[in-house]
Amino acid sequence: MKNTLIFLFGVACSIFVQGQTDETITISGKVTDFEGKVIDSCVVQVLHSDFSSAYEVYSDKDGNYKIYNVKKGKYLALYAIRPKEYPRRNAVPDIDKRLEYWAWNLIADRDLVINPRYHRLELYGLTAFKVQGEPGLMVYVRPMSLGKLLQYSNDIYTNKERIDNEVDISVSPENFRAIAFIDNEPVKILSIQPIKEYTGKEKEPMIGYIMCLEINKRPDRPYIEIKIEGTNLEFNERGENVCFYEIENYK
After folding, report:
1. CATH, range 1-118
2. CATH of domain 119-251
3. Above 90 in pLDDT, residue 104?
């Protein structure tokens, strides 16, 4: 009887921990910086289309996280940062502040491994689109620099309206460098073009970038994962973001 109870308890624990059904998946990974140092106590969130939180966990002492029972579907993004490092919290010295990691247009159709890396350059709004008749894949991203933000000193804590309306923390073309990956394999950036992005009626335009990526092979699933890794030479900042791109008429 005792052995039977132990067995049943083990089965119950296994079901609880794994928590998988045909309608759910697990998202897991490790959070690190660009030197490979693990980041513990990092919040990892899956967000709905209105930026509200669908799921939330924290990385452990080894930087690992797991989000169980994620309902299959499409989500706005996966987001990661150690909360105290976010600049507006002003909870750590400037040298320890960071900007967040994003994986955009998240497609949760199977178990996913996403390993966030973040530093002081945020590659915001990464998205991809196809131009009819063109061989490559177009990608848009807006790099945002923590170094430029910190130049505005206490305004980021005391005058949020000014920061939101006037401050340009984008990265100039002479200082921006990028490399690209599709499904974790490096791909050639065929062209990169800076553009002025309209950010609001009374706001200064910010610099974003349109890139054309070479597509080398057909994927084995109806979407690809695009990763852009960027560097801001002005402040020696790095960052990377991912976006999921769904392939039309995939068969």
Report:
1. 2.60.40.2190
2. 2.60.40.10
3. yes
Amino acid (1-letter code) at residue 82? R
CATH 2.60.40.10 domain span(s) along the chain: 119-251
Q: What pLDDT, on the 0 to 100 scale, is given for residue 165?
A: 60
Query: Does residue 11 carry a pLDDT above 60?
Result: no
Mean per-residue pLDDT of the chain: 87
**Residue 166 vs residue 81, higher pLDDT:** 81
- List Cα–Cα distances, 204 to 154, 166, 167, 215, in angstroms: 20, 6, 7, 34
> Which is more confident, 15 or 139?
139
Integer-rounded Cα Rg, in Å, for the chain is 20
> What's the token pair of residue 121?
């350059």
Q: Alpha carbon 64 to chain centroid distance? A: 16
- Where do the CATH 2.60.40.2190 domains begin and end in the chain? 1-118
pTM listed for this prediction? 0.84
pLDDT of residue 195 exceeding 60, the answer is yes
Max intra-chain CA distance, the chain: 74
Residue 155 has pLDDT above 60, yes or no: no
